[in-house]
């Protein structure tokens, strides 16, 4: 398979990424894309469950997809923060495949009929991340968005876009190391390390 060239300008600063909590579409393994399924009960509980961990640190800013499931997750996880909405963090538009089983999606790098190509999505995610990370000081930025945005971030930081999806409501710390990147689930120990 030939992958598109990685021509994205991605800031080399650490940040935390959170995929929104579970929706019924996630549970049923249905492509939600640009549609607006709300968080289900499990998704709301997932978001509330990580709020105490996220409250352990002082964050620079919280940037969020304009879609309801991401905004609601951010409100539950970080209730004391102003949310900065970035349109470039919205989920991929899957065109004719929206509402279809995820198994029908095919390769990440195929453009779905009447939908958005992966390269085009990653270009807008790259621009959104440049905006979100432009003024990082001694505190980290939090980005709350979608599985597809997480895949673009993985791809732009040198990892496999075709691997498993990032789990719902799981904070992931991304940070540059040497000429590359590393990422891992955020823990209390990591929060103490990055807050020192």
From TrEMBL:
PANTHER family: BROAD-SPECIFICITY PHOSPHATASE YOR283W-RELATED, PHOSPHATASE C1620.13-RELATED. This is Phosphoglycerate mutase. SMART domains: PGAM.
